[in-house]
Structure formats: structure tokens, C-alpha cells
């Protein structure tokens, strides 16, 4: 190789620094602008903050573990990426049920409700709530979600892997309906990964028809599948062939007894 060729490929410290600097900038752009794998039915807090004008009055579902308590019936969702914090969203619990944040900070909470402007006097009057104005001073002109449903939100796979942790607890799950057994029974799938166990859902009093592939949010209580107990508690009239099939596949596995099943908007999650 000639000296001229060698000089052409000489890597000076300035060139190396320039390449590394632009690589660093590209990495930051990818981190902050990439779209994470979508979880069915969920909308991100940052998207709600950005699109609040278009979303006011609409029904949304969010899931987050970045939640802080504000008052007896309110919470704030704050999401921070590195040193940048997205605009917080205030959650007003109008479900009529007391909700306490989980002790385990890694446990997510799922909230479904209507997007509203944070107008404290109006929300107090409309939902018969007692909110403390001073608590919300930092959120003036912010966005609120008036929650009709709020509950712990473990992954469907977590329930299948460690069911005893969740037995007899009220949960909120989002996933895709698969394998409809009858109008009251189907399985819920979260990520469509091969080898992952779906969760059996029993909906004793269905308020809506469901279809395979439909994305829904489901709230209810998890218990072990024991056919005799379920037949007694919910007066089920299954065929003998269905009973045999369910016993073989689901005996002592978790089943979610649903009290609500409702469509859920598909978007990106934080």
C-alpha cells in the first residue's frame, strides 16, 4: 500500500470524535423516538398529554407503575425517561371503590376512564367528589382521566406463572380474545408469543358479544379452576364434553372471573 493510500485512510482523533458524537446523537434519537412493542388496548401517558385536545371526552386505557398518590381519591401518573419527564396526568378515581397503590413499585396499575380537562370545581360537582384544590396547583390546566375502572395490572403471563400470588385479588387485564368456548368463556392472550399460556376467562353475565381477535380490557377476580365450585357458584350448564375438556386442560390453573369486559383502544404504552 502506498503512502498516499495510507494517508487517505488515516483516522485522526478529530474524525473519530466526530463519528462518535454523531453516533451518540443518533442513539439518543432512537431512544426517545422509537416505538416500543405495543401492548394491546393501551394508550401511553405521553400520547394523552400530546393529544389531549383531541382526546377530551374519549374513553382510554392506560397502564403504568409510575403512579403517586395525591389525595384520597386521586393519583398522578409521572413518566421519566433519563432526565426528561413527560407532563403528568391526574387520575380521579370515580369507580366508587377504594383503591390503594401496590407495595411493590414494579406492579403496574391499569386505569380506564374518560379524558377531561383538570377543572376541579366541575369534576367535584359532576362526580360528587371532594378534591383538595391545593394538591393540584402543580397540575393547573393539565389533563385528567376520570377513572371508571382502576386495579392492579399484572401481565397475563405472570398470572399463569405465579397464580397463587393473585388468587382472590381484583385485577385489570388487557389482551386479545382467543378460543371462544361459548358466550361466557374465552381465553385472553397478551403478546401472541409461542409457548406462552393464555388465561381462561369466565364472564358469568356478559354485557357484550365478543369476537376472536378483539382487543378488550377485562376486570375481575382470579381463582383456581375447580369445576364443581364454579358450577355451584355460577349455575353453569356446560355440556359433558366441554366439562371434560376444561377439566383436562385447566384443572387447578387460574381462571379470571370477569365482572366487566369492554373494548379497549389500541395504541402505544410507556
Order of neighbouring strands in the sheet with most strands: 1-7-8-6-3-2
| Proportion of residues in extended strands | 25-35%
Mean pLDDT: 78
What name is given to the CATH topology of the largest domain? OB fold (Dihydrolipoamide Acetyltransferase, E2P)
Mass-distribution shape:
globular
Count of discrete alpha- or pi-helical segments spanning 4 or more residues: 8
DSSP, total strands: 13
Topology (elements, then pairings):
Blueprint: H1 3-8, H2 13-33, H3 45-50, H4 52-55, E1 59-64, E2 67-71, E3 74-77, E4 80-81, E5 84-85, E6 89-93, E7 109-117, H5 120-127, E8 143-152, H6 156-161, E9 170-182, E10 185-189, E11 199-202, E12 215-224, H7 227-234, H8 240-250, E13 254-263
Parallel strand pairs: 6-8, 11-13
Antiparallel strand pairs: 1-7, 2-3, 3-6, 4-5, 7-8, 9-10, 9-12, 10-11, 12-13
Task: Write a structural description.
The chain is of the alpha+beta class and 270 residues long. The protein folds into 2 domains: 45-151, OB fold (Dihydrolipoamide Acetyltransferase, E2P), CATH 2.40.50.140; 156-263, Beta Barrel (OB fold (Dihydrolipoamide Acetyltransferase, E2P)), CATH 2.40.50.140. It has helices at 3-8, 13-33, 45-50, 52-55, 120-127, 156-161, 227-234, 240-250; strands at 59-64, 67-71, 74-77, 80-81, 84-85, 89-93, 109-117, 143-152, 170-182, 185-189, 199-202, 215-224, 254-263. The strands form 3 sheets. It has a 6-stranded mixed sheet with strand order 1-7-8-6-3-2. The chain is globular, with a radius of gyration of 24 Å.
Amino acid at each position: 500500500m502506498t503512502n498516499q493510500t495510507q494517508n487517505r485512510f488515516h483516522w485522526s482523533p478529530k474524525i473519530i470524535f466526530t463519528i462518535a458524537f454523531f453516533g451518540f446523537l443518533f442513539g439518543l434519537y432512537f431512544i426517545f423516538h422509537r416505538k416500543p412493542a405495543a401492548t394491546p388496548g393501551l394508550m401511553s401517558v405521553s400520547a394523552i398529554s400530546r393529544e389531549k385536545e383531541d382526546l377530551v371526552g374519549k374513553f382510554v386505557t392506560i397502564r403504568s407503575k409510575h403512579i403517586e398518590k395525591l389525595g384520597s381519591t386521586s393519583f398522578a401518573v409521572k413518566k421519566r425517561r433519563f432526565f426528561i419527564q413527560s407532563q403528568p396526568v391526574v387520575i380521579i378515581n370515580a369507580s366508587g371503590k377504594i383503591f390503594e397503590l401496590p407495595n411493590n413499585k414494579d406492579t403496574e396499575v391499569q386505569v380506564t376512564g374518560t379524558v377531561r380537562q383538570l377543572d376541579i370545581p366541575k369534576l367535584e360537582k359532576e362526580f360528587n367528589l371532594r378534591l383538595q384544590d391545593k394538591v393540584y396547583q402543580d397540575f393547573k390546566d393539565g389533563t385528567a382521566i376520570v377513572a371508571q375502572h382502576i386495579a392492579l395490572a399484572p401481565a397475563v403471563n405472570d398470572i399463569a406463572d405465579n397464580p397463587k400470588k393473585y388468587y382472590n385479588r381484583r385485577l385489570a387485564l388487557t389482551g386479545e380474545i382467543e378460543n371462544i368456548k361459548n358466550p361466557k368463556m374465552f381465553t385472553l392472550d397478551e403478546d401472541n408469543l409461542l409457548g406462552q399460556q393464555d388465561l381462561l376467562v369466565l364472564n358469568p353475565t356478559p354485557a357484550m358479544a365478543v369476537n376472536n381477535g378483539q382487543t378488550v380490557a377485562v376486570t375481575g377476580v382470579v381463582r383456581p379452576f375447580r369445576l364443581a365450585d364454579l358450577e355451584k357458584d355460577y349455575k353453569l350448564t356446560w355440556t359433558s364434553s366441554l366439562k371434560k375438556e376444561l377439566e383436562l386442560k385447566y384443572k387447578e390453573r387460574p381462571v379470571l372471573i370477569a365482572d366487566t369486559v369492554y373494548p379497549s383502544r389500541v395504541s402505544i404504552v410507556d
